[in-house]
Amino acid sequence: LVYPTIQLQRLAWLIGASNARRWVYEAALYDAAESHRVGYLDALSEGDAVEAAFAFGAGMAQAAPLSIAGSKAQLNAVLAGRVEHEREHLDAMVQRADGSEDFREAARAFAQKRPPVFSGR
């Protein structure tokens, strides 16, 4: 079995070259604790995984949609080595967020010491 190159590239980026080599060469099964230790899993959940996923999603749902979208696009570009290729688009996302109603709402909420209510505008 030889894995597709893109899958090995992602694995090496995610868990590091040394761990990726060990995992591929050993061809063993790894448990959640080991997967978390090397960075393959973001978190472990003692309880129900679906509940943990909903809790994670609920936290993200409280964030500003433009901020999440922009950060996701930036991270994806960085990780794909495409920042220069996508710079114009990424810069436009930053400018849109900086001039948004959500940005102003964040400033108001901070000044008023209350949680912000974002609209995605």
UniProtKB/TrEMBL annotation:
Single GO MF annotation: catalytic activity
Superkingdom to which the source organism belongs: Bacteria
SUPFAM superfamilies cross-referenced by the UniProt entry: ClpP/crotonase
Xref: Gene3D superfamilies: 2-enoyl-CoA Hydratase, Chain A, domain 1
Protein name as catalogued: Enoyl-CoA hydratase
Organism of provenance: Acidovorax cavernicola
